[in-house]
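Weekend entry, working from home. Most of the wet-lab plans are on hold until the incubator is repaired, so I used the time to fold the two sequences that have been sitting in the queue since the last round of cloning. Logging both here for the record. First:
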Amino acid sequence: MLERINAFIEEYLSVLDRLNIRITDIVEIIVISFIVYQILAWVSQTRAWSLLKGLIVILGFVLLAAIFHMNTILWIVEKCLSIVVIAIVVVLQPELRRALEQLGRKNIFASLITPDAGKQSGRYSDRTIDEIVKASFAMGRVRTGALMVLERNESLTEYEKTGITVDAVVSSQLLINIFEHNTPLHDGAVIFRDNRVVSATCYLPLSDNRNLSKSLGTRHRAAVGISEATDSLTVVVSEENGKVSVAYGGELFSGLNQEGLREKLEMIQDKPQEETRRGWRRAKEAKVEK
């Protein structure tokens, strides 16, 4: 039996030797395959997918022009090629920026060098979560709109600077007072860091996701926008219907009850990454079933 195995291995290695395939070639193929897969996965989730289909149609037309020797069309295509490349970069600028941000967010090399690099620097306490939940539903009952952003690993300093410094311990009374109608701080978002309210009336980027419901207002689009740009979690209270929602990872979870909101807030506490991933997967499955 062992002789057969050894003979098979020797025969297989001899074939590889005749093909002159090196270990580095195999590694190179794996790396290129991974990069191509990631690019295609990214393209399928952005406006680049529609653009790619349009480019395929144009390439088909150019191929026909080459087959039938339509030299004038080929000359025009050749002269416009550089302009087309620049136009694609301009059109896809938001998607390209988001892809680079996500690549930097993964922090691959830091996690290889220091295993603890991917862990959260700050942990939100149970008391902070209780106060946010209490304030959210208290404001929801009286139709008071609110936008609360919880910072995680990525700094929100650039958004914090657009608001007014608060630097106070989180409490439901404070949050309700901040978002009360016709008060100086009620317009904009509140940012939390390490169990403290650091800033209020902050401006957030709006999402340009076309899959979002047209019925969503600026507050919800801002919540999704900041969740696309950073790894933060945002709690939104609707002024129209009092419903409480959460935006995280570019997704919006709407119409939560107190337990649902608490569950999502607990997921950004200092827990193992795999456990957090499983929790968000269960939340998505529950949303689909609903």
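Second, folded right after the first finished:
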Amino acid sequence: MTIAALKTKRLILRQWRPSDYPIFAEMNADIEVMQYFPQLLTPKQSDKIAYKCQQLIKNNGWGFWAVSLNSDNTFIGMVGLNETHIDMPFAPSIEIGWRLHKDYWGQGYATEAARAALDFAFTVLDLDNVIAFTAVTNQRSQLIMQRIGMTDTQSNFYHPMLKPSHALAEHVLYKITRQEWFSFMLSYSAKTSKYDL
């Protein structure tokens, strides 16, 4: 299986490396990074997720890629695509998601990488649509969803892995179709790269 590596103006979305694991564990133990997740992760739990991402990319050629800076190859987090869990009300489907180290927030990196992942989804995987979801209180992620052309389906749901009373249980569901993606990207056609901000 050929493993896809995506390049944008500032970033590389690539296969995971052992050196990424400690930084990823640091992210997953950070209360700010994990604000909209039910709990912080131990290094062992974090390594398990990273290894799973690595194996899915190895087997499928794509997934939640490790993201690094073009300039110096610094690992800054993960962005990519994944099959949604079977218990989700909209399964089967492909989701897009991201998690970056807080030192790299506010610089447009998540948006830039997510656009590359969506382009891969529609031009290489030839998907009909891609979804994204997050807690209703996570305005930062919802803004990224909007910046990459996704729209709120107005179909909020309660995450099946959380108790309905949990503060993070209610989630929004965003979606973009292949046609919507290509129409959205026309607005960037005059730029030097379709992944520019």
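Plan for Monday: verify the second prediction. The first helix runs from residue 20 to 28.
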